Amino acid sequence: MNINEIILPKINSSLSSSKSNSLDNFLLKNIPHSISIDEPLPYVEAYNHITANFPYSYELSAFNCFCLLFTEYGSGTLTIDNILYTLSPNTAAFIHCSELHKIEIKQSPWNYKVFYIKGDSIPLLYRTFTKGQGNLLELPSESTIHNLIRNLYDSLEKKPEKLYLHSKYILDILLELIIERDRQNNATAPVPNYLRELKHRFDTCYQKNISLDELEKEYHVSKYRICHEFTKYFEAPPIQYLNQKRIEIAKEILLSTDKRIHEIGQLVGYENTNQFIRLFKQQTGITPLSFRKQLASSY
User: Fold this and answer.
1) What is the reported pTM?
2) pLDDT by residue (tens digit) across 286-296?
3) Do the Cβ atoms of 177 and 92 come closer than 8 Å?
4) Where is the HTH araC/xylS-type domain (predicted)?
């Protein structure tokens, strides 16, 4: 059965008389799975970028699927297991659609991205995320999860046939959600502002080269302290974190474009192609070219 045939009848029937809330606005985009994909890997069944206005609500249960819902502005509520969650901006909700739950608008307009996902690995990730913690997580503004959500949505829009790329983004998002929840649970003190700024710079301006000496001068903090504190909060020294970020971006470019290896290296900040290949192999165990060939053979 088409996923829209399950969800649309559940949406508040008074929407039919509201132009701003026409049911057509809530049609989910289905992803065809004509290409076989290994069952353990997650995949997107349907998705959309929704803008809802009053009135808007629906209840759903007994649907064998999981839902990821990310609020951008406005707000809604999620009621599940008699617990009411507020879906405010920069929150992520992870829902098992087989459980009775209700979604309802709270502040109009409510803008959110929603992904209905399946795969053998999803139940374990769901249990890990929700165990004793509930279905909602507030995301820091500098979290890399925001970029991962955009990447998944853009990939579904522009490259719906790239199922393995979708799987990578879903796994990245779910694992980052679990890591972020764990980090928040174990945080004994807020991350210093200069470290938040530095991490944001690495996440968004990874092409630019920078040294520890330059960071020491800029932040007026010793480079040894920078390394120690950055590792404490982000589990890797700053330069190592930057290289990891570059390699992750390089993987995405390798999967989604036909650019040459030296071009990709330059795009992520490596003028020296040999250095790029060495660091890529150091982090992944294979060269960029082998990585591309292995993934290409999977399609």
Assistant:
1) 0.66
2) 999 999 888 76
3) yes
4) 196-294
